[in-house]
Design brief:
Largest sheet: 7 strands, mixed
Helix content: 40-55%
Number of helices: 27
CATH architecture of the largest domain: 3-Layer(aba) Sandwich
Number of strands: 21
Radius of gyration: 30 Å
Distance between the termini: 43 Å
Strand content: 5-15%
Strand order of the largest sheet: 3-2-1-4-5-6-7
Length: 743
């Protein structure tokens, strides 16, 4: 914990992360040098500390099997199967041990189970080897025959990246793992329609093995999780996926289930898939970074806005986590002058994990709150969540001499709460009446939900509002903001307040504090009327929505390109990280003009990656085939040495014949170190007025100083004009030649 107030004791861990990993690492090392006795000893020691580590029970079984201790190996594999019954690999290993022991019947059952769970080549080969080729091909066909148009690919790069960087899941990632688990639990014939993929700028899309993915998810959500081990499981899943490259085909669907805006270089991949006729959709959690920038970190708003603008060029449909977000999306499309995309709400579950029966567990982290009257609020502490509202309410009641319960805030401090945190410290957390906790386990949080008087959630805006649903799931009354999507979560079972009106909040909070009958009536109403929505229902509705999108748009919509009007100047420097995003960016997402092979914008503009790049845009109202002149203001890198740059449309002939207009579309220039130049390129507008220019430097460049990038050419400005529009051409020329480089 980073901070704990009111002297709540810190938990004392029984064993360090290094100790938890040391025996497993020793086992891995012994396994790699084929010292099976030492591997078995080390794995046994690790399992004594972490008996729920199913993957190591499998490794333990391997070591025992290599020592010909088949009966013991079978027992280890059975433990793995019991811990993770839907792990196909565990069933395969158990089947092999049974077959080696002469139990062919049970072995066949294990191989069949494995192949029903996942596309397991190992299980298929084992069944074929046992004379069950027809059965093996029938079961495998459910997976291998799923190349039809109804296949949907889910992107996992953002999830894996998050798990590598963070030891605990956050909201979006928890949504992802819940949906993934439900899809993986579908019958094989249904699950075959969904594939989970990872990709990057350097590597193609690769299919993640379902069993490996399930191991990652189960471990990430386990009560006793070691982050280093989680990263290893992610690396193993990525390595296994390396041999399973895939190219989505026309009519198939690619769906961004998570945080699409954090996936590096996603746009070039979307462009390639759209060009191939792939249908693209996204699950939108909220539009807060663009509609409510005042509540967000500046870099988040910029990154989200850039990604959303580019994604909207490619999307065929949008799903949202609430009706409120769906309405906001439709308004945004209309106000930005964008095509009317199909938008459909698939609401989230009421809780990330529905409560399990059990008595409260008062661990050292929360023991000081036992037998204490307290009100609970759960969320990251950020300005949007409106914790200042609660601070002011508790301060007002204390000043009036009222008998006030403790206020327990569970959540880490986020952005734009420095003033609030200072007020808390300066008042000694209202003389100890406010407690700040974070990094609680699920059991600890469940204990607080069950033991509090009620919860409070005065957020200014939400995409959904999970803390409200979680409170109701525990049968606990909730006082919540009536803003945005929150009433969709709570319905008529929540007491709502105006998040801008402190008097309204004090009235409602006081009523529940001082009227025990009213509080009990609210609990009784929740117990009789609340029906929690679970993740099975969410996933069913999500799959139905994906199917409906495919039926509604059997052919993918054409890729849209960012539009640049004649005479309008594009300067990449305007999109550098430290500058706010232009308000009209969703209407004109001009960064998408540089679809691949360009670095992040800098003060002068943007550097091209390596020796190849492209610039693609729609030339305003230009007619197809119209002759245009594109003006490129370029900057040579310090390390160039007479390198030759060639700019041409992709279909231009590279050999020039004097006097032919066609050949004038190929332009070359010799680059000099640190020198800027303006290049005029004659081209023709393609279909829908699209201009596509390819840039190529004749040979590689080295690095400059400590900069690890290999760069040769930078783009400072770009503009175009019709070839016969002399006035616009002169205006562009004067600006490019006379205006200084962007500062």
């Amino acid at each position: 914990m980073l901070e704990r107030v009111h002297r709540l004791p810190d938990p004392v861990p029984d064993i360090s992360e290094d100790d938890l990993l040391s025996q497993r690492r020793a086992g891995d090392a012994a396994r790699d040098r084929r010292d099976w006795a030492e591997a078995a000893r080390a794995y046994r020691a690790h399992l004594a500390l972490q008996p729920g580590d199913a993957a190591i029970w499998v490794q333990f079984g391997h070591a025992l099997k290599e020592e010909n201790r088949i009966s013991e190996a079978e027992g280890a594999y059975r433990r793995a199967v019991a811990l993770q019954p839907d792990d196909a690999d565990a069933h395969v290993q158990l089947g092999r041990a049974l077959r080696r022991a002469g139990a062919d019947g049970p072995a066949r059952r294990e191989f069949r189970t494995a192949l029903e769970l996942a596309a397991s080549d190992d299980a298929r080969r084992e069944l074929v080897g046992m004379g069950e080729a027809e059965l093996a091909e029938e079961l495998a066909g459910r997976w291998l025959g799923s190349d039809a148009a109804d296949v949907t690919y889910f992107e996992l790069a953002d999830l894996f990246g998050f798990l590598n960087a963070h030891p605990t899941l956050s909201g979006i990632q928890r949504v992802m793992v819940n949906v993934i688990e439900q899809i993986l639990s579908l019958p094989a014939s249904e699950a075959a329609a969904y594939r989970f993929v990872i990709g990057s700028a350097e590597q193609p899309l690769r299919v993640v093995d379902p069993a490996a993915l399930l191991r990652v998810i189960r471990y990430a959500t386990a009560p006793a999780m070691v982050h280093a081990r989680l990263r290893e499981l992610v690396a193993e899943a990525e390595a296994e996926a390396g041999a399973c490259a895939v190219q989505p085909a026309a009519g198939q669907t690619y769906f961004a289930l998570g945080a699409f805006w954090v996936t590096p270089d996603f746009f070039p991949r979307y462009v390639a898939m759209k060009t191939a006729g792939v249908r693209i959709g996204a699950y939108l959690y909220d539009l807060i970074p663009v509609n409510h920038r005042e509540f967000c970190d500046t870099l988040l708003s910029r990154r989200f806005g850039l990604a959303l603008g580019e994604t909207l060029l490619c999307l065929d449909f949008v799903l949202t986590i609430s009706e409120h977000t769906a309405r906001e999306m439709r308004v945004l499309l209309d106000q930005s002058g964008l095509p009317d995309l199909p938008v459909r709400a698939v609401p989230l579950a009421h809780a990330l994990q529905l409560p399990r029966p059990g008595a409260p567990r008062w661990t050292p982290a929360i023991e000081a709150l036992r037998n204490t009257r307290f009100v609970l609020t759960v969320s990251t502490i950020e300005v949007r969540k409106n914790h200042t509202y609660l601070f002011r309410a508790w301060r007002e009641m204390l000043r009036n001499g009222e008998e006030v319960p403790e206020l327990v805030i569970v959540g880490r401090p986020g952005w734009r709460v420095d003033d609030l945190m200072a007020q808390l410290r300066d008042t000694d957390f209202l003389d100890g009446h406010i407690h700040l906790l974070h990094d609680l386990t699920d059991d600890e949080l469940a204990t607080l939900y069950r033991s509090c008087l009620f919860t409070v959630f005065p957020s200014f805006t939400e995409g959904w509002g999970l803390p409200v649903g979680e409170s109701l799931s525990y049968g606990t009354p909730c006082v919540a903001s009536r803003a945005a999507s929150i009433p969709e979560v709570g319905g008529e079972l929540v007491d709502y307040v105006d998040p801008h009106d402190l008097g309204d909040g004090l009235r409602v909070i006081r009523a529940l504090l001082h009227d025990k009958d009213a509080l009990q009536a609210r609990r009784d109403a929740i117990a009789s009327a609340f029906r929690p929505r679970d993740w099975k229902a969410v996933t069913r509705d999500l799959c139905d929505a994906l199917a409906a999108a495919a039926q509604g748009t059997p052919e993918a919509a054409p890729l849209r390109r960012p539009a640049l009007a004649a005479g309008q100047v594009f300067e990449p420097a305007a999109l550098r990280p430290e500058r706010p995003l232009p308000r009209d960016y969703l209407r004109r997402p001009l960064r998408a003009m540089l679809p691949a092979h360009w670095h992040e914008s800098e003060n002068f503009g943007a550097w091209m990656r390596g020796e190849e790049g492209s610039i693609v845009f729609r030339a305003g109202s230009a007619m197809p085939g119209e002759t245009l002149i594109v003006y490129l203001h370029l900057l040579a890198a310090p390390q160039v040495d007479g390198h030759v740059l060639t700019v041409s449309p992709p279909d231009a002939r590279m050999r020039r014949s004097p006097g032919r207009d066609e050949d004038r579309r190929v332009r070359s220039i010799t680059l000099q170190p640190n020198t800027s130049a303006v290049l005029r390129v004659l081209t023709r507008a393609g279909e829908d007025g699209v201009v596509d220019l390819r840039l190529s430097v004749d040979r590689p460049t080295g690095n400059h100083g400590d900069d690890p990038r290999r760069i040769a050419l930078g783009l400072v400005r770009l503009a175009w004009a019709p070839a016969d529009d002399l006035a616009t051409r002169q205006e562009i020329t004067e600006r490019f030649l006379l205006d200084p480089l962007p500062a």
